[in-house]
Design a protein that fits this description.
Helix content is about 35%, strand content about 20%. The chain contains 28 helices and 34 strands. It starts with 5 loop residues before the first helix and ends with a strand. Bound molecules: ligand ANZ and zinc ion (ZN). Ligand ANZ binds near residues 332, 333, 336, 342 and 344.
């Protein structure tokens, strides 16, 4: 027969799929809807091995659900704003759009070749004015709700990229993108008030439990960082030079109030300069200079020796009346809690290290039975009984916390509170290639929103090359005819805001735009959202465990509050695919271990690469390309494809009349594969398909033969299973079986439970302990019958070679041992 050629079948099918529109959802309510989404790509060059893995996994889910009878939505688009396009444009003296849209075309062609079951009609790019018009519209709705605001604040600044960074974009003190140590700079910036949603972001995670990877939920929980505790107000005693001043601390351990022996404010908080005694002002200024010179990396190092400076003032403990020296130190963070703490060295290690460094007293107030922290240098934090603490004495830690809150509340010097680590989302960027912030600054009216009917605020298209280079202010400021506008409120001369939005704003709502990509009345049609949301399966890398997912969850909740959405959560289930490594290491230019996806596809074919990705490991595990065998996958696919050449029964022939043993294998495979797919063990499904191919080949060559309807049933099952991982081969096999395209229109087979009952068993026949034959026998065979069958075996007769028999041991139904005379 014909030979298997991946090139020939890759050329044949895409046009057919396009024409049939098999991957466009019906959206008519005839089937239950399911939305499958892969995190959309950033257009940096062509697709790479990582895309190949992630998208192969998402496609298994989409195709499986389609076969199961769901109406599946599986769209694609591009996250096409961002720095790399701008840097490329500066280097090549072009506009970022050129690089961006050229790369998008390259990736789109590769995606099509890769044969993902995508609905291309919904394609979007976040840098299209038709898209960012709605990003701006959403910004304005957030602004109206008080959820977008501007403030002057020290922000993370990347000196290399010359732009601010969100906390989330600072990794170990360095710019996530370029690795340059991040510094602080005070700037007027736009923020989204995500902190208003901290509680809901936390609470609604209960819905995601069991459907999202546990470690992602843990990272989100940790990022939101909810701490229960108290605000306690301390009076900083008046001096001749300074008036009394009240300073609030945040503590999770109000039970230790009597153990506070000193007081610390963040060295870089304005408060330090406001309260410092005049004679200590110079010492503080010197210390602040030292702190500023440190990189974030150094500051975050917890092992670093504690440093600080005494401010010449005393804080009064509101419960004990004790006077505590006030210090400024850099281990207290300006933007956590209130930026000031009561230091309890006996029970907090950081405070103890500081007390040791500066000879400050240590007083234990919780007797935990452990050794004295003053002596050991180890703070005690276990359970115990409160001591040395007036009204709290004798209580447990938990009782003490409750009681201390009661006491400070009664005294009017504090209250129980909840503190979050989560900060508001800094969204403005001093860069060009992003959605302009739709605000006009008017000398008379202040901030004026751009009216909805003037959206989008388009990026100017006359800036290019060097004009886009970062100068610390947005390049948009230099586009004078763009910046200068009339105020929509008073008609006077005004200026556009020249910042653009963080690209995480674009990606916080793209999953909704897919639902009605041409909708003109809003960002999406609320009716379409009602039909499709939430996303039933989201697929993407764990590098988005915090930022993108948290922001999208926040956007969803705000849109729900706006009445646009019913869903509380955007992504009902999440799958994180592993990385593709080479030689056990992530692929990188410096290691020179990169593998080019295009070359792999040219050498082995799309199906073999996809199958290899899926077969290598469960989706969430890494794949080491040095350990896998795409050529082995290609051989398997050829073997599967050849089955189609040998089936001679007609489509529709009744499998019930076919070979029962093969049917048992087929139906066992179907039953197992269904369970494995539901559990996302795609790699084992591939192994099952391989076993079925082997059993079928055996049935054709040395069993009932290619005309048996059970063989057709087995090969049809192979085609349907393969369509999840190897769509070209599967489609061709399906056609060889005499079916109309497409195999994607087939139904996922149902197993027949009666065929799974194992009513035969293999009996081993030994002569003098050596295996001489294996017999398929009924499970309930009698000892007599089994004995007779064994002795009749030609193999046994040959070995006996005419000798008589001493005894025959029979253990029905599995074993017979013949002992010759
Ligand atoms: C007194 C105390 C006694 C504390 C004790 C802890 C143990 P989490 O759980 O992370 O919320 N703290 C408060 N604000 C701070 C800041 N801006 N910079 C550094 N540390 C700060 O931690 C809350 C605890 O961290 C607070 O409770 C405070 O120290 C410290 F035995 O207050 B504690
Ligand atoms: Zn005005």
């Amino acid at each position: 027969g014909a030979a298997y050629s991946f090139a020939a079948i890759e050329a044949k099918w895409p046009a057919v799929w396009d024409e049939l529109g098999v991957f466009t959802p019906k959206d008519d309510g005839s089937r239950e809807r399911r939305y499958v989404l892969d995190m959309f790509p950033y257009p940096s060059g062509d697709l790479h091995m990582g895309h190949a893995e992630a998208f192969a996994m998402g496609d298994v889910v989409a195709r499986y659900w389609r076969l199961k009878g769901y109406d599946v939505l599986h769209p694609i688009g591009w996250d096409s704003f961002g720095l790399p396009a701008e840097n490329a444009a500066i280097k090549r003296n072009t506009h970022p759009a050129e690089w961006t849209y050229r790369n998008i075309e390259t990736q789109a062609a590769s995606f099509k070749r890769y044969a993902l079951s995508l609905d291309w009609s919904r394609r979007l790019h976040t840098s299209d004015p038709e898209y960012y018009r709605w990003t701006q519209w959403l910004f304005l709705r957030f602004y109206e709700r008080g959820l977008a605001y501007r403030k002057n604040h020290p922000v993370n600044w990347c000196p290399k990229d010359q732009t601010v960074l969100a906390n989330e974009q600072v990794v170990n003190g360095a710019c996530e993108r370029c690795g340059t140590p991040v510094t602080k700079k005070s700037l007027n910036q736009w923020y989204f008030k995500i902190t208003d949603y901290a509680d809901r972001l936390l609470e609604d995670m209960a819905e995601l439990e069991g459907h999202w990877p546990e470690r992602v939920l843990a990272m989100q929980r940790n990022w939101i960082g909810r701490s229960e505790g108290a605000h306690v107000r301390f009076a900083i005693e008046a001096t001749d030079a300074r008036p009394e001043r009240e300073v609030t601390v945040f503590t999770t351990r109000p039970d230790t109030l009597y153990g506070a022996t000193f007081f610390v404010v963040a060295a870089d908080a304005e408060l330090a300069g406001e309260i410092v005694a005049p004679e200590q002002a110079q010492a503080l200024a010197d210390y602040q200079d030292r702190v500023k010179a440190l990189s974030e990396i150094e500051r975050q190092n917890t092992d670093r020796e504690k440093t600080g400076v005494f401010l010449g003032r005393y804080a009064v403990n509101p419960l004990s009346g004790e006077k505590l020296p006030v210090w400024a130190a850099d281990y207290v963070l300006a933007d956590y809690g209130t930026g000031a703490i009561m230091a309890v060295p006996a029970h907090d290690q950081r405070d103890l290290d500081f007390a040791k460094a500066f000879g400050l007293p240590v007083r234990a107030v919780l007797d935990t039975g452990e050794e004295d922290p003053a002596a050991t240098g180890v703070a005690t934090s276990g359970e115990g009984t409160i001591v040395n603490s007036g009204p709290l004495d004798g209580l447990s830690k938990a009782e003490g916390i409750a009681k201390a809150i009661e006491v400070v509340e009664a005294a009017g010097t504090g209250e129980g509170t909840v503190n979050y680590r989560l900060r508001d989302w800094l969204l403005s960027r001093q860069r060009f290639w992003g959605a302009p912030i739709p605000i006009i600054h008017c000398p008379a009216c202040g901030e004026v929103p751009v009216p909805d009917d003037q959206l989008p605020v388009r990026l100017p298209d006359n800036l290019r090359g060097e004009q886009l280079a970062p100068k610390g202010t947005s390049p948009l400021a230099s586009a004078e005819d763009w910046v200068n506008v009339t105020c929509p409120a008073c008609g006077g001369a005004a200026l556009r805001d020249t910042d653009t939005m963080d690209t995480f704003v674009d990606s916080s709502w793209y999953y909704l735009r897919y639902l009605s990509p041409d909708y003109a009345e809003g960002p999406f049609d609320p009716e379409a959202a009602r039909r499709w949301m939430p996303v039933a399966q989201y697929v993407g890398g764990v590098e988005h465990a915090i930022l993108h997912l948290l922001y999208s969850r926040f956007f969803t909740k705000v849109m729900k509050d706006m009445g646009l959405l019913d869903a509380d959560e955007p992504f009902a289930a999440l799958m994180n695919q592993g990385q593709v490594l080479n030689g056990g290491k992530a692929m990188s230019k410096s290691l020179g271990n990169g593998v080019d996806l295009g070359e792999q596809l040219n050498t082995f074919g799309v199906d073999a690469v996809r199958l290899t990705m899926v077969f290598a490991s469960p989706p969430e595990d890494d794949v080491d390309w040095a350990d896998v065998s795409p050529s082995g996958s290609a051989k398997f696919l050829a073997r599967a494809w050849r089955l189609g050449q040998d089936v001679t029964s007609a489509p529709g022939s009744d499998p019930a009349t076919g070979d029962r043993a093969l049917r048992a294998v087929t139906h066992r495979t179907i039953a197992d594969a269904t369970e494995l797919l539901d559990a996302h063990k795609f790699n084992v499904v591939v192994a099952k398909a391989m076993e079925l191919v082997n059993a079928t080949r055996k049935a054709i060559d040395s069993g009932p033969g290619g005309a048996d309807p059970a063989v057709r049933e087995a090969v049809e099952t192979v085609a349907i299973m393969l369509s999840l991982f190897a769509p070209y081969t599967a489609e061709d096999l399906w056609a060889a079986l005499g079916h109309e395209p497409s195999v994607s229109n087939a139904s996922w087979p149902q197993h027949d439970p009666s065929l799974l009952v194992e009513d035969t068993v293999t009996a081993v026949v030994q002569v003098q302990g050596k295996v001489r034959d294996r017999l398929e026998v009924a499970v309930d065979i009698s000892e007599e019958d089994l004995r007779e069958l064994a002795l009749a075996s030609p193999n046994v007769q040959r070995v006996l070679d005419g000798r008589g028999i001493r005894t025959v041991v029979v253990r029905a139904p599995k074993l017979v041992n013949v002992v010759p005379a």
